[in-house]
Design a protein that fits this description.
The N terminus is likely disordered. With about 250 residues, the protein is mostly beta strands. The chain contains one helix and 13 strands. It is globular.
């Protein structure tokens, strides 16, 4: 996940990622991809916590930050193109924000800087627990959130994230593995792996996306591998999100 960034429906979660944004409306966020503990007290990622979705949101008080790199490589009939690299930083702004539609949420600020946009740009997102699921809400006016994780956190748990029929299919998500050790630049973390499949509808050809996203308690998304294939042009791309830094206040 930095990539399900973020055109009409976000994700992710950025310079050339605006390209990904246009090709990956739910990247998170992506990063996008990209988020805090409970909507109340802060949590230490090292503590043992109950296996519920809210425990995987970014931990820390306002000012806490988590940073990722997003590498994007495209391959066409001429071979592999150079890899583009973006840096994405998420900052906790408010752990008890009152969203006008969804109620109590954690408000996060995302700032992205990339090779194609050295000045960078920022945007706010909102995360909260609703209907037994951890949601990302793209704005204060959106009535449709994006499911990032759904209870119970057990292997085989499957859910559908409704897509905009004009731009994307319904995204299918499945918890594939639990207690998976993942080596990130930050450090090795114990994670839950969530696999997803989606189709983006574009005038240049439909794009089929398959993702493997890894989530750690108190840190949310820590690693992601997303492959995209344009059925019409046969252009393939790979984007990798990696956690590089976490600073808790």
């Amino acid at each position: 996940m930095l990539h399900k960034l973020l055109g009409l429906r976000v994700i992710t979660f950025f310079a050339h990622l605006l390209v990904i944004v246009m090709n990956c409306f739910r990247f998170l966020p992506l990063l996008a991809f990209i988020l805090l503990c409970s909507c109340g007290d802060s949590t230490n990622p090292q503590e043992n916590q109950g296996p519920t979705a809210i425990d995987y949101l970014f931990a820390g008080n306002p000012g806490s930050q988590i940073q990722y790199t997003i590498a994007f490589t495209e391959t066409d009939s001429n071979g592999i193109k150079p890899t583009l690299m973006d840096t994405v930083t998420w900052t906790v702004l408010d752990r008890n924000f009152s969203h006008p539609i969804w109620g109590n949420c954690v408000k996060m600020h995302q700032f992205a800087r990339g090779q194609n946009n050295p000045k960078g740009f920022g945007i706010d997102y909102y995360f909260g627990l609703y209907n037994n699921s951890l949601y990302l809400f793209p704005s204060l006016t959106d009535s449709l959130g994006i499911i990032t994780m759904k209870n119970p956190l057990t292997i085989g748990n499957h859910w559908i994230d409704k897509g905009n029929p004009n731009f994307e299919s319904d995204k299918e998500c499945t918890i594939q593995e639990i207690d998976v050790p993942i080596l990130t630049t930050y450090k090795t973390l114990n994670t839950i792996r969530i696999d997803s499949k989606d189709t983006l509808f574009r005038s240049t050809g439909n794009i089929v996306e398959n993702s493997k996203e890894y989530y750690a308690q108190g840190l949310f998304l820590v690693h992601s591998e997303r492959t995209s294939n344009n059925i019409k042009t046969n252009v393939q791309s790979l984007s990798i999100i990696d956690l590089i830094r976490y600073t808790k206040k």
